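pasting for the record
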Amino acid sequence: MKKLISISLIVLIALAVFAPLAIAAGDAAAAGAKPEYNGIIVLGLGLAIGLGALGAALGQGLGLKGAVEGVARNPGASGKITTTLIIGLAMIESLAIYALVVVLIILFVNPLKF
């Protein structure tokens, strides 16, 4: 089942990325003009920040799960576990912020012309 879901997601992502490219190239060839790739840039930026946020969310969820299990097993160590958890969550969240910064840099370096 996991393999089917993985293949389906890969096909959907490939379709979402390559369909606008094919349409833009076809329209440009018909018009004899240079194709515009603004839609693909926006799609790529959306996928980049989405994947960055997804990875951060999964990491934070797994970290919180481990911390809750640790406190449940040894309530006396909750202070050390909480401190380590907060530091770890801050590090994981910084990865999502880095993804946002990269997306904003790409967006403002290559301004879109709509």
